Each structure stands twice: as C-alpha cells, then as structure tokens.
Amino acid sequence: MKxxxxxxxxxxxxxxxxxFFGGRTVRCETAVKGVKALAVRAxxxxxxxxxxxxxxxxxxxxxxxAGRVAGVVNPGRVRDDAESMGQLAKTDRIxxxxxxxxxxxxxxxxxxxxxxxxxxxxxxxxxxxxLARCVRPNPTV
Length: 141
Prior knowledge:
Elements lengths: L6 E6 L3 E6 L2 E6 L2 H11 L3 E5 L6 H9 L4 E4 L1 H10 L7 H15 L9 H19 L7
Parallel strand pairs: 1-4, 4-5
Antiparallel strand pairs: 1-2, 2-3
C-alpha cells in the first residue's frame, strides 16, 4: 500500500513542469535535462501526468526507461476530483497538487512504455506539429 507521499503529480507545459511530491512543489524544465533532474528528485514516487495532447509524452516515456514508475491519467477525471474538493482555481502549482491528490485517491496503474516502433510515429507527428507552429501563414494569400 502506497502512502500519500508516494505519488508525484506533474503539470506539464511547453517550457516548464511543476511537480508536487512530499508536500511541496518544485519547478523544472520540460526538456530532457529537467526530466532527468525530476527523476532524481522524485525518487521512487509514482509520477503521474495528465494527458495533455502530447506534452507529457517525453517525460512519461523517459521515466520508465530510467527505471521509474510513471502513468498518464485522464484530465477530465482530475478536474472532476478538483471540483469535488472545491478547488476551482487553476494554476500550474495547484494543478500539480491536484494531480497528486487524484493519484492518491484513484491509485492509477503505471503506464506501459510503448515499444520503439510505437513511439516513433508519435515523435514524428509531434515534431511536425512543432515545425508547423513555427511557420507563419502568408497574409497575402
């Protein structure tokens, strides 16, 4: 049986992530360097992410590859739990705490690490979307 400190709720955004574990929130980069630092700081905690359209994928895949436990949960269920607790405010730090609280209550199973063959198409599509956001449409067309 896991205690409430055994979960790390992580709210991921493009540039940074907020992680709540051990009763406090820490901020780290969403890039590889930040995920590696988070893996060390979170220790053996079960890291839980909301499914956020792919931003969580790199970390959710890197952590199990590094021997850590990670899982991705439905953001609607997390939001429902937040509302049931009377938590209507939404900031990255609050979201990280709410994700950890949701995990403590729901006890989600760890996600399985997809095979390299399964991860490759996702990484290609993610990269294409990143590049597409960089291209500005021509206003004269």
